[in-house]
Amino acid sequence: MESRHVHLLLLSYMFCVLILTRAADNIRRDEPLRDGETIVSSGGNFELGFFSPTPTSSKRYLGIWFNKVSVQTVVWVANRDTPLNDKNGMLNFTTQGNLTLVNGSGSVVWSSNTTRGGVQNPIAQLLDSGNLVVREDASENSNYVWQSFDYPGDTALPGVKIGIDLKTGFRRFLWSWKSRNDPSNGQYSFIFDPNGFPQPFLMNGSIQRFRGGAWNGQSFANSPSLLPSPSYKYIFASDPDQVYFTYELIDTSAIARVVMQLHGFLELSTWNNLTQNWDNFGSAPADNCDIYSQCNAYGLCNSGNSPICSCLDKFEPKDPTEWVRGNWSGGCVRKTPVLNCQKEVKFLKYSGIKLPDTRFSWYGRGVTLNSCEELCLRNCSCVAYAKLDTTGTNEDCLLWFDELMDIREFGSSGQDIYIKLDSSETEISTGNSSKEILKKLRISLPLAALSLLSVLCLILYIRHTKNKKKKEEENQNQQRFSEGSSEMLYINKSKNDDLDLPLFDFATILEATNNLSLSNKLGEGGFGPVYKGALKDGQEIAVKRLSRYSAQGTDEFKNEVIFIAKLQHRNLVKLLGCCIQAEEKMLVYEYMPNNSLDWFLFGWFSLLSTLNTFGYL
Fold first, then answer.
1. pLDDT tens digits, 93-135
2. FRET pair for 530, CA 20 to 30 Å: which of 29, 56, 401, 474?
3. pTM of this structure
4. How far does CA 204 lie from the centroid of its chain?
5. Helices (H) and strands (E) in the chain — how many of each?
6. Dihedral-angle region of residue 372 (phi above 0 means left; psi in -120 to 50 means alpha; beta otherwise)
7. What is the pLDDT of residues 35-73, one digit of tens each?
């Protein structure tokens, strides 16, 4: 009797082992995965199995999805173009070591097509990164025979490389679904173009829809959606073997994805456990000026202007009549043509812009800015030059040899470019006239400095007189906050400051507004979006995030905030503080649910704009 119990215990143990084996993160030879079964990565982040895109669809696909997300979100599909018609599909290895998906009749509908031989005991393993890999069973290293990260669909997870192998020509890119119930290749793709200086493009078929821009050492900073973020970072690599970019999460516990949506937008989103929804961190194209070459050759796009297109300084519309009508397809031309090398030429500096399309450019490392200018000056086909790296750690040079396309105005977030012009177009030139300019500067600069000093002294005297008369009134208008808040820093009062100004750190703003998610967004005005949030003590706030492309400096911003604080009145919404960090400038108000949204979007800033422009209300 006792022996029988022992046998039953052993059988139960073996049964449990078999269950655990099927629930593991891998598939081995002679252990096929059938429809209805799944494997889960070791950390529980991802799941592999069979699915239908919609509840009404009878088509079956093999795919990978997030395991910790309540809404099934597929990140990779094996048989995008060849769906199964029933639930008789099976995933298994062939005798040659290929991972194959077969239908009920045994016909292969998808295969890993592994070309490397010599795999004796293949194993397919789902990693916690979402990467499905095929390797030798005895090997624990990353020398994979095949991996799904090399064949992304519409989604790039952290670590997926979008780019090209320059030796083999193998490309990795994103391709949108055709529809919500059809994961086959759709209309839009996100690729990496290696021509000239490499840059990413969002394509509508064969037409460029959006250009991410050239890597500047930190990011692809030519789009509001691709600027650096405290939540993630970009990685770019370019060498003789390969060109690619990827991204990594700073908070590795976050769940994130980049998706080429079927409606033509590239979106970066993270999962919000509180709302059980995806929060959109960025989308490209972000505005009309993100549409590729909106203003055509030598046209400058600014989404804050009306119309949004204008010609660069020293340039004019090629077809003025059509330009006035809003047809900018003709672009702009130089007012004074540069005829090869027959005339004396020089360069004019344009600042705060998105660098033009770099497909027809040359890039050189270890070249100083002065040497870059000389190279462009000596080449009659060169039309412009620029320093690409903005970190200050590398000397580099970028030369353009065709019309400059896809330029937009970025303000302080933009870069400098030097465009070749006829010498008659500007007083600042290069070459033999530089000595004459220096002589003029030696005379004019001291006179200008003396005049400026006199004006500054007069301004300081007038300001001192006004401050002395209004000191008592200003002190009565100052509103101070309670001490000891763990969420605030303060700009302390000194003889140069007019009042205590609460300064929120950026991390507090992110936490209060759920990482500035769209679900917290109240709206958007001319100066930037407004987000609703809540501090740790429960106080509701409204955060006004100023545009990154404003040309306003930090000191000017601080002065404006102090000025607003002085104007506070019991019938007006209360300014609680501000946030200044790197490119970020934000105003934090008391949230007033009974006040209209127009007040947050336009109220204070219309008032401030009037004061700044005219000096009075």
1. 998 889 999 999 999 999 998 766 667 889 999 999 999 999 9
2. 474
3. 0.67
4. 20
5. 8, 41
6. alpha
7. 999 999 999 999 999 999 999 999 999 999 999 999 999
